[in-house]
Amino acid sequence: MTGQPQARKGGILVAVASAVIYSGVSVLAKFAYQYNLSPVQLLKERYLLASIILTTIIGLARWRLLFPRSWHEAGVLFGFSAVFVTGPTLLYFIAVKLLPVSTAMFLFHCYPAFAGFFAWIILHERVTRTYLASVGVIAIGLLLLLGASFRSVSGIGILTMMACTVAYALYAVLSQHVMRGVDPRTLGLYNQLAPALVLCILTVGQPLFYPVVFSSRTASLVFAGMGMSAAGGMFLFVQGISMIGAQRAVIIDSLEPVLSALYALLLLGEHMKPVALAGGLVIVAGVIIGNLPARRSISGL
To answer: Distance of alpha carbon 59 from its chain centroid, rounded?
Structure first.
């Protein structure tokens, strides 16, 4: 019995470590944009580095997870990730270029509200009172966040990030159905490999790694950090899910926008208006509410 609480504590620490590491990706991307790469080029470097790092980590930990169980599963993994990971992430990187990191991250973490809607429409899951409460709280947070900063940030950036949020919510719902039975670590790996391949095709004729990546020690550290944050955060997140379950892991994952706002303040000097920060924290509260155990569903839905 004593092993279970210790395992739970270990899983919580792993999930927290994932949030701490992964929340640095957007800040590092903001740094990387000073090297004049386009979003497609920057994202290619990120996915290539993350693929190499994650393949190494998983290969050393459990090499069999590098390979799908069948050719059919391999095709599904590549095809699904190529479309439903590359698209949302590209929108995300475009939005991060146009918006303050803190605003972008809080907007992105509204995706559970859309995911619940898609789960109802596509998977015919019941709408619970907990979900409706979550959507209401997230909506209030959005009004506060956007009301405080709408005139001071890019409207195109906001629309791009909201499109990313909707697309990612669709990915989150469809992945539950399409990837049933796939080990989360294998799924995480192919979520890096497939977009890397797509982006290499889109940039055919260009260097695999652009010279700017190695142009200085600072540049190398920024790009390596982007790859390590993405790969390490992904690996720790799926490990956390296996140890404490998806529900707890997603709640802990809600720390990401708060940590990103802190990193942006310390490293980029980005300051959020108090009302906008309050709105962001309300969004996080809404996400947490949405991941609390559901008790009752709304009849007829």
So the answer is: 23
Question: Quick check: is 133 in a domain?
Answer: yes
- pLDDT at residue 298 above 70? no
| DSSP-assigned states of every residue in 87-115 | HHHHHHHHHHHHS-HHHHHHHHTTHHHHH
**Identity of the residue numbered 100:** P
Predicted confidence band of residue 45 (pLDDT cuts 50, 70, 90) = very high
What angle is formed at CA 68 by the lines to CA 63 and CA 73, rounded to 5 degrees? 170
Distance CA 213, CA 219 (A): 6
Which residue range is the domain that position 180 belongs to? Answer: 25-290
The rounded distance, in Å, linking the Cα atoms of 118 and 133 is 17
Q: Provide the number of structural domains found in the chain.
A: 1
The answer to whether residue 14 is domain-embedded is no
**pTM of the entire structure?**
0.85
Please tell me what DSSP assigns to residue 125.
Answer: P
Is 80 exceeded by the pLDDT of residue 64?
yes
Top-confidence residue, 238 or 296? 238
The CA-CA-CA angle for residues 271, 276, 277, to 5°, reads: 70
Q: For the chain, give the mean pLDDT.
A: 85
- pLDDT exceeds cutoff 50 at 297: no
What Cα–Cα distance (Å) separates residue 151 from each residue in 18, 46, 222? 33, 31, 31
User: What is the Rg, in whole angstroms, of the alpha carbon atoms belonging to the chain?
Assistant: 19
Look at residue 12 and tell me if it is in a domain.
no
Give Cα 275 to chain centroid, integer Å: 25
Report the alpha-carbon angle 253-255-259, nearest 5: 130
Residue 98 banded pLDDT, cuts 50, 70, 90: very high
Q: Is residue 135 part of a domain?
A: yes
